[in-house]
Amino acid sequence: MASMPTPVIFDILVRLPVKSLARFKTLNKLCGSFIRDPRFIGTHFKYGADEGNDVCLILSYMQHGNLNSIVHILTVRDNDELALVEYSAPVSFDSYQILPSCYGLVCFYGLHGGVLVCNPSTKNIVRLPDIDAEGIRSLSCGFGFDRMSGKHKVIKFLEPLEAEYPFTDNLRIEIFTTGNNSWRTVRYHPCFRFLHHQPPVFAGGFFFWITADATDPGGPSSFSIVSFDIGNEIFEAISPPESVSEKNWFNLYLVELGGELWLVDLDYELDQDRKRMDIWIFKASIADKKEQWVQETIVHQSEPIDTTRPVAFDGEEILLHGFINGLGNLNWYNLRTGSFRQLKIKGVLSQYCHASHHVGSLYPVLH
Q1: Which residues form the F-box associated beta-propeller type domain (predicted)?
Q2: Closest CA to 318 of 301, 292, 303, 300
Q3: Which of 196, 192, 248 is nearest to 219 (CA)?
């Protein structure tokens, strides 16, 4: 391999699976230098994200013991029924919230403030430094990737212990960038009233939240959507779809699918049978500075779908996670035909798992 031109070696390695490259990293010095190079890591991830039509899911759940917890991370492809254990690791005992996979890494945070980041493919995990938490409590975290710097970022929300549910006027926002060993405070405008314990959604280089109107924080229909540019670290407000702007924000939630922001309407006032779910996809053109919401609707002919949530999108089908009577807890919905098909999975020990789209990567947990 040493006699081969460098571009040829690069082109060969960039097409190999993450697990194969992780083994080569220790066996071959030249391969190791490639695999640690940020440009190679970025190109390899993009190649993996663009290749193949089958969707890879990451299924995560916690197993709690007397003294500690174990996080189990499994992967399964749409064309396979068997979920493979990708990584299992013991962590300190806590109640954890697992966030969606982001550029190959998974972040989860505990009720007592601990934040961990792992790469299931390379089997590396780190616990981020703790924040001085005297007199404050941890609310939620978000996990995203800054394409300009090539680094992941964790955003964390904290509030005073005496704060009242569901809002706080003394919110503290901290940012952690991989490669640094400390948290730093981010300023935000007090007109944004972030909802209690609601983690942000990361899509297209931005974090997004549903926020309450500071002038009428108790009003159920007084809400807006706030974005946070992960690179420039600037907050801005965006307008929700006009048809839901007066709805109760308790019935709305945000999710990232296919790299885009989706707003899901769970208000079933007009559909007592709960067989319909309305979704709006946020389309933004940076060049034209235009924003619009495109509506899609999921309808089941006979069964309620109010306990399901969209977790993946392949351009034609939406994967719903949650039980539909007679089917199962993972089902594809075809937007063109309006049909459902069950995704059968074996090897998952818990039905209470978190599911998200996943592309394996070589991104290190600390870099």
Answers
A1: 77-351
A2: 300
A3: 248
What tokens does 17 get?
Answer: 């699976």
Tell me: pLDDT of 288 over 70. no
Sorted by sequence, the CB contacts under 8 Å of residue 60 that are 6+ apart come out as 71, 72, 73, 74, 98, 106, 108, 353, 354, 355
Domain 52-357's class?
mainly beta
Measure Cα distances from 294 to 283, 314, 358 in Å: 7, 17, 25
Question: What is the domain partition of the chain in residue ranges?
Answer: 1-51, 52-357
pLDDT in tens, 31-63: 778 888 999 999 999 887 766 556 788 888 877
DSSP structural state of residue 54: S
Strands in 286-342 per DSSP E: 290-299, 309-313, 317-321, 330-334, 340-342
Amino acid occupying residue 278: D
What is the distance between the terminal CA atoms of the chain, rounded to a whole angstrom? 28
At 361, is the secondary structure helix, strand, or coil? Answer: coil
